[in-house]
Amino acid sequence: MSEEEEEGAPPSSFEMTWSSTTSSGYCSQEDSDSELEQYFTARTSFARKPHKEKEKDEQIDWEKPILSQAEIEQKIKEYNSQINSNLFMSLNKDGSYTGFIKVQLKLIRPVSVPANKKAPSIQDTRKGSSRSQAVKRRTSFYLPKDTVKHLHIISRTRASEVIEALLKKFMVVDNPRKFALFERTEKDDQVYLRKLSDEEQPLRLRLLAGPSEKALSFVLKENETGEVNWDAFSMPELQNFLRILQREEEEHIRQILQKYAHCRQKMQEALATRTPG
């Protein structure tokens, strides 16, 4: 861990500490000043297919038993006895428990952050940042492949809150609904991915599965639903997409007209070289 866990009261469901396997977490690719080029093209945003992976997106109905308080305490003791690091789970007086989850970020597309902003340091994330502030210009960054974050969360923390916290740590201003948290499981020489619902509790899944990364790991990916979720885009994004579509439509029409004009010219030249009859 790059940051030691602070002692004190257990975190709320949204309070987290974190660490990274990368130094800055960003590979920059600044956007052009042109408003139309602040976002990748319509073709990239709308029709880009995800890379084929070995993982299978299948609904695996693992049993998720409801544990009693005594069973939770026993599970935590078993969990802590199996790990070889200081990422322990601890039981709180109110019956909740805190611990760490590791999330691997496997994002294909760049993420948007406010322009002229540096990659957040640990000091910056402690101070916090507001995602709701108005952003007039954006800069796109490609997160390094297989970036990993350790989050210190409480058992009540939901999957949707984990996504929001990860975006906040990187000062990402994209809508959280564009992303999804997946459960990755290796079983019988196969790797399975299951998208978590917003209400699922990742730390509870971690406790039930134990510390083994093969039994369970978490992955943040784009929320590929097969359809474009227009509600997830901001007004400036939608307006820019409409302009891009119009530009592509005009270019397509121009190419078609040019093609038929060329064919017509060739036919007229052929007719001109022939004598009647």
Question: How would you characterize this protein structure?
Answer:
It is built from six helices and eleven strands. It is an alpha+beta fold.
Defining traits:
eight-stranded mixed sheet, alpha+beta, 30% helix, 277 residues, single chain, 6 helices, 21% strand
Please count the beta strands (DSSP E, at least 2 residues each). 11
Shape: elongated
Structural class: alpha+beta
Mean pLDDT: 76
Helix content: 25-40%
Q: Please tally the helical runs, counting DSSP H or I stretches of 4 or more residues.
A: 6
Q: What is the H/E string?
A: EEHEHEEEHEEHEEHEH
Distance between the termini: 90 Å
Tell me the Rg in angstroms: 25 Å
Strand content: 15-25%
In short:
The chain is of the alpha+beta class and 277 residues long. The chain has six helices and eleven strands. The strands form two sheets. Strands 1, 3, 4, 5, 8, 9, 10 and 11 form an eight-stranded mixed beta sheet that branches. Strands 2-7-6 form a three-stranded antiparallel beta sheet, with no helix packed on it.
